Amino acid sequence: MVSLRDLLVLLSTILFFLNDCLVSTLSINYVPTRLWGFSGHMQTVLHSIIGRVKCPWPLGERVYLSLEDGSTLTYDLYQPIKEFEDDITLAICPGIGNSSESVYIRTFVHYAQCHGYRCAVLNHIGALGSVQVTATRIFTYGHTEDFADMIDNLHRKYPGTSIITVGFSLGGNLITKYLGEVQTRKPESVIGGISICQGYNAVEGTKCLLNWQNFRRLYLYIMTENMKSIILKHRQVLLSDESIQRHNLNEREIIAAATLPELDEAYTRRVHNFSTTQELYRWSSSENYFDNIDKPIIFINAKDDPLIPEFLLGPVKNFVVAVVEGYV
After folding, report:
1. Can you give the C-alpha Rg of the chain in angstroms?
2. Core vs surface per residue 228-255: b (16+ CB within 10 A) or e
3. Are 154 and 188 in contact (CB under 8 A)?
4. pTM (2 decimals)?
5. Given a cut of 50, is residue 17 above it in pLDDT?
6. Rounded alpha-carbon distances, angstroms, from residue 173 to 66, 185, 193, 216, 234
7. Which of 98, 174, 213, 259 has the CB geometry, 3.0–4.6 Å to 102, for a possible disulfide?
8. Would you list the DSSP string of 33-96?
9. Which residues contact 72 (CB under 8 A, 6 or more apart)?
10. CA–CA separation, 325 vs 304, rounded Å?
11. Closest CA to 264 of 203, 198, 217, 175
12. Backbone φ and ψ of 250, nearest 5°
């Protein structure tokens, strides 16, 4: 069993990745970098551009899993570059529409490898253009089954490893919900989790994204277009005649959707048998599963996150919260 000390060591590693400076103690206040560091928008945009320069491309193997519903799930597995005193595997769940090929994931994996961690990165179904969708679904905000299947496979591959779940944004919501779901059987090798920049409440979070304050509506537009591109990229399967008839879908409404709630009304909630989008969002929100979490978990959020206002952080006030700057 790995101690809480190991989780705090890992937290320092993640804070290094987020802030680009070594954090040796949680008692030190973060001082934003001059010029661009005082704006969450600037940090988010600049990292998305500069982060692509000399971004590492870790070498790993792609694992393919055939699921009961006919879906093909993949995750990328990366071995540690340096030896570490404990055998620890980071089970990483990326943000919405992201995968092991996303820049911030590649950067994090490389850094973790250099510090002795094995990494497994879930590729959200539909996110990889090189992997075909083989069933009439993709990932969602709250379905944790894909992540659970990856964890189970890792446990069988490495029965002696300790697994720490790590989630970014949407992935943070999924790993938190996974740890709090009573009906989901979790291997004893799962020792805890770290959630980075999630919003905890999909109902209230969506309301925030629908207004123009802090340019959130612009970010929402980008996320909506990304989700639509994933659906349309796999339209031969996801929008087949049989799928449209079974789920009562309208392809024109899907294409015309300008926001995630509109897209979820036209597609997501129908495919997954929810009566309303509000029901889907309530079921997906990780804050509704906090009471059943019995593993150590650390929540990290940015104080000036352009997407997630501070009032959404209320549910985690009783947990360990590290305050950093900018969005992932």
Report:
1. 19
2. bebbebbeebbbeeebbeebebeeeebe
3. no
4. 0.85
5. no
6. 24, 18, 11, 19, 25
7. 98
8. PTTTTT-HHHHHHHHHHHTTTT------EEEEEE-TTS-EEEEEEE--SS--SS-EEEEEE-ST
9. 64, 65, 66, 125, 131, 132, 133, 134, 135
10. 6
11. 203
12. -125, 110
Segment 120-133, tens digit of pLDDT: 999 999 999 999 99
Mean pLDDT of 69-86: 92
Average pLDDT over every residue of 95-99: 95
Task: Dump pLDDT digits (tens) for 233-242.
Answer: 999 999 999 9
Strands 61-66 and 72-78: antiparallel
Distance CA 143, CA 284 (A): 7
- pLDDT tens-digit readout, 236-294: 999 999 999 999 999 999 999 999 999 999 999 999 999 999 999 999 999 999 999 99
Matching residue, tokens 């969506």 = 206
Q: Which of 5-9, 154-158, 194-198, 301-305 has the lowest mean pLDDT?
A: 5-9
Residue type, 57: W
For 160, the token pair is 């002696």
Residue 310 near residue 303, CB atoms below 8 Å: yes
- Confirm or reject CATH 3.30.830.10 for domain 4-217+290-319, answering yes or no: no
Amino acid symbol at 315 = P
Tokens standing for residue 241:
């005649």
Q: Which amino acid is at 72?
A: T
